[in-house]
C-alpha cells in the first residue's frame, strides 16, 4: 500500500500505527521517506482509556477501537483546514487518489459506500460504508466527527453486529444526516473489493483498468491470505465471486507481484509471514500438499505467482 501510494503521491506524509513490535521493526527496515512510525505505546499515552480496553476486548476488537483514536491523534498534527485520510493497510493504488480529494474539496468528511453486489445486500448489517478509506478535514465539523467516533468506539466496539453498530464501521451510517458537508464517494473506481466487483464492468483500455467506465483508483484486498511462499487465497469463495480475466491479470497479479517484490527487498523471511500473532499466541498456516494446492488453483480458489 505504501509503495503504491508513494508512486502517485510523493509528497504525502503518512502516519503508520505499528500495532506490534514486528510491525515497527519492519517499517524501520523499509525506511520510506515521509513515513512517520507511531508505536502503539504512543497512542496509549495519547488515549489512556485504551489501556484498560485492551485487557477487556479481543485483539481484533482492540484494533477496531484504536482506529478512530489514532485518526483523531493524527488530525491534531495536520494544519487547519487540511484533509486527513485514514487508510487500511490492505489497499493498493492503481491511479492517484488526488481525484478523490478534488471531489471532496468543499467537504469536511469523505466516506466510501460498500456498494454490495445484489447477492450480498444482507451484509449491510455490518455497515453501509467501509472504513478502508475515511477522510476528515481539520475543521470544526471534521474534529467533532473524529471526537464523537472515538468516544463511541471507546464505549462499544465489538466484532459482532447489533442494530445500530458494528466494530468501528457501522457508526458511519449516521454521518450523512448527523454532520454537514459529508461527501459520499460514489466513484466505482474507489474501494473496489470482492464484495462489489462481481457486478462491475471491468475493462482494460490498454493503459489502465476501467470500472464501469471510470479509472480504478484503488482495490481493497480485504481477507487476502498467504497460504505458502507463492500461493494466496483471495477469499473469493466468501462472496461466490467468479473473477474475470481483467481482475486476475490487471488487478490481483500486479498486487501479488508487488508483495513478493517488497518481501524480497526488505528481507522478510517466509516464517515471518507464516505466523499470525493474536493475544501473544502464534497461529501457523498449515502447509498443503502439492496436489491439493494444484486442484484448488485449477478450480480458481487460490492464486499462484
Notes on the structure:
With 305 residues, the protein is of the alpha+beta class. 36% of the residues lie in helices and 21% in strands. The chain has a single domain, classed as Alpha-Beta Complex (Spore Coat Polysaccharide Biosynthesis Protein SpsA, Chain A), CATH 3.90.550. It has helices at residues 2-8, 21-30, 40-46, 49-56, 59-75, 98-103, 140-155, 175-178, 245-266, 270-274, 290-298, and strands at 14-18, 35-39, 83-87, 91-93, 109-113, 129-137, 182-184, 190-193, 202-204, 209-211, 214-215, 218-220, 225-226, 231-233, 275-278, 281-284, 303-304. The strands form six sheets. The protein has a four-stranded mixed sheet, with helices on one face. The chain has a three-stranded mixed sheet with strand order 4-12-8. Strands 9-10-11 form a three-stranded antiparallel sheet, with helices on one face. α5 runs antiparallel to α7. It is globular and about 55 Å long.
Contiguous low-pLDDT stretches (5 residues minimum) are 271-286
* Side-by-side strand order of the widest sheet: 3-6-5-7
Order of helices and strands: HEHEHHHEEHEEHHEEEEEEEEHHEEHE
Helix content: 25-40%
Reading off the top of the CATH hierarchy, the class is best stated as Alpha Beta
Topology of this protein?
Blueprint: H1 2-8, E1 14-18, H2 21-30, E2 35-39, H3 40-46, H4 49-56, H5 59-75, E3 83-87, E4 91-93, H6 98-103, E5 109-113, E6 129-137, H7 140-155, H8 175-178, E7 182-184, E8 190-193, E9 202-204, E10 209-211, E11 214-215, E12 218-220, E13 225-226, E14 231-233, H9 245-266, H10 270-274, E15 275-278, E16 281-284, H11 290-298, E17 303-304
Amino acid at each position: 500500500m505504501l509503495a503504491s501510494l508513494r508512486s502517485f503521491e510523493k509528497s504525502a506524509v503518512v502516519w503508520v500505527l505499528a500495532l506490534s513490535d514486528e510491525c515497527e521493526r519492519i517499517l524501520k527496515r523499509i525506511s520510506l521517506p515521509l513515513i512517520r512510525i507511531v508505536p502503539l505505546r504512543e497512542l496509549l499515552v495519547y488515549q489512556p482509556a485504551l489501556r484498560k480496553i485492551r485487557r477487556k476486548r479481543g485483539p481484533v476488537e482492540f484494533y477496531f477501537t484504536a482506529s478512530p483514536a489514532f485518526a483523531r491523534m493524527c488530525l491534531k498534527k495536520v494544519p487547519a483546514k487540511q484533509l486527513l485520510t485514514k487508510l487500511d493497510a490492505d489497499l493498493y493504488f492503481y491511479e492517484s487518489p488526488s481525484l478523490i480529494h478534488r471531489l471532496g474539496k468543499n467537504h469536511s468528511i469523505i466516506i466510501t459506500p460498500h456498494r454490495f453486489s445484489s447477492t450480498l445486500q444482507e451484509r449491510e448489517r455490518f455497515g453501509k460504508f467501509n472504513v478502508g478509506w475515511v477522510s476528515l478535514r481539520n475543521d470544526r465539523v471534521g474534529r467533532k466527527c473524529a471526537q464523537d467516533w472515538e468516544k463511541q468506539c471507546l464505549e462499544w466496539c465489538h466484532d459482532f453486529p447489533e442494530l445500530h453498530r458494528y466494530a468501528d464501521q457501522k457508526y458511519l451510517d449516521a454521518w450523512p444526516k448527523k454532520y454537514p458537508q459529508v461527501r459520499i464517494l460514489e466513484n466505482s473506481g474507489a474501494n473496489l473489493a470482492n464484495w462489489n466487483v462481481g457486478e462491475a464492468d471491468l475493462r482494460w483500455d490498454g493503459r489502465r483498468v476501467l470500472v464501469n467506465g471510470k479509472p480504478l483508483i484503488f482495490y481493497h484486498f480485504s481477507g487476502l491470505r498467504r497460504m505458502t511462499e507463492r500461493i494466496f487465497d483471495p477469499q473469493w469463495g466468501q462472496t461466490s465471486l467468479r473473477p474475470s480475466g481483467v481482475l486476475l491479470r490487471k488487478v490481483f497479479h500486479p498486487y501479488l507481484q508487488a508483495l513478493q517484490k517488497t518481501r524480497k527487498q526488505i528481507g522478510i523471511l517466509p516464517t515471518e509471514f507464516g505466523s499470525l500473532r493474536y493475544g501473544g499466541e502464534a497461529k501457523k498456516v498449515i502447509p498443503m500438499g502439492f496436489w491439493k494446492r494444484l486442484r484448488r488453483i485449477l478450480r480458481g480458489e487460490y492464486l499462484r505467482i
